[in-house]
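Input (structure):
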């Protein structure tokens, strides 16, 4: 994915966490992901399903990267994209783009 979009590879090690919405595991679509700079034991990835991002403070749950294969294996190929990148997928539809505003600069 990084080569396809000419982005530097930035791994998401299995022992680190993502923030993920429960609606992803429930099978809602589309699936959205965005990556902020990593902090502490996180990758910086936030992943949710549906058209809108909730502002509920409990919307995202921490999940180790190693468990993503059980929740949503199709997103694993995006997890090497560096901070500042986003994706949206829905079946065969795929959109991947860089969003500088995620870097807080």
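Output (sequence):
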């Amino acid at each position: 994915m990084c080569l396809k979009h000419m982005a530097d590879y930035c791994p998401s090690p299995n022992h680190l966490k993502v923030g993920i919405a429960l609606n992803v595991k429930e099978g809602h679509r589309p699936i959205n992901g965005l990556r902020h700079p990593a902090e502490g034991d996180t990758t910086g990835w936030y992943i949710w399903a549906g058209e809108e991002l909730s502002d509920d403070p409990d919307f995202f749950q921490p999940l180790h990267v190693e468990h993503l294969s059980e929740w949503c294996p199709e997103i694993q190929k995006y997890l090497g994209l560096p901070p500042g990148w986003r994706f949206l997928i829905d079946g065969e539809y795929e959109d991947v783009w860089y969003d500088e505003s995620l870097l807080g600069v």
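Notes: The radius of gyration is 13 Å. The first helix runs from residue 22 to 25.
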